[in-house]
Amino acid sequence: MSLLAILISLILEKLLPPLHRLRSLAWIESYHQWMCAKLGCRKRWQGIPCLLSIIFLPLIAIAVIQYFLNDLLVFFSFVFSILVLTYCLGPKDKRQLAQEYLVAEEREESDNANTKAKAILQDIVSCTTSAPLPDSKSARARALIDCLLIQTHEQLLAILFWFVILGPMGAALYRLTVELQQAGQRLDATENRDTEFLSAVTRLHYVLAWIPSRLTALSYAVMGSFVHALHAWNNTPHTDTINSYADTDNSSASRNNPESHHLLLHIGQASLQIDNHPPQDTAQHNDAIRETLELCGRSIVAWVTIVALMTMAGWAS
Question: pTM of the prediction?
Answer without folding.
Answer: 0.88
